[in-house]
Target: WxL domain-containing protein
Amino acid sequence: MKLTHKLCAAALVAAFGAAVALPHGAYAEGEETTTGNPLEFSGKGTINFSEDDGEDKPLDPTDPTKPGDIIKPPVNDAAGPLKVIAITDLNFGANKVTPATGNGWEYTAQAAEVEYKDGKKVVSPNFVQFKDTRANNEANKHTLIAKATTFINEQDKELKSAQLKFSNIKLVNGADQNQVNAAGVPAAQTVETDGTTPTTFVTQDAADKGFGQFILQFGDTADSTEGDSVKLWVPSEGNKLSTSSGYSSTITWTIANAR
Model:
């Protein structure tokens, strides 16, 4: 009997030692594991994004916080997250030929007329709308430049060395004005009408700015400068104005990656 008691005691000690030796969380094969904490349990949340390549609506010039159903000016129908969306034409009107003043002639562009799909029309500053909605973990750095061809009429006569002069320049982001890098936007700028010289209007080089849709406007209806902020300067030297037909120039705006 004593021997039997000793063998049973030894077996219990061996079993207990094996249980202590098992690491925490070790279970028999096929048995489910657990976190070991009945008070908490974790799940996951996931989200994915795709590139902004859909149809764009210009911002409403009268309220840049919302899109506008605009048919004039026309909208660029090309897709992409880095894009010039819409621009207003510059109309310098009909002018009488007069003697030059200060070695040349200066003409002022009319305020823009914006037309909505419902037929409503409003007066607006001339503007360029563009966007940078790239979202690939890199800074939204870009530049906006303009080039203008020579003003020429139907008889191939040119306004030589003419310049487009922009003033009261303002960059607006209706959704988040903090995305505007004010230091990268000059208050005034001049574009040569030679077809080749680029002029920079926006230099967005800040790492924490530049995302979204923007309006670069020339003048503001709030201070009545919408019709007095874009001028055409024509030097008298080398130029003789002609009434035979109107003159026209093509002004091209380009947004470019600056990363």
The mean pLDDT is 87. The chain has one domain: 59-257.
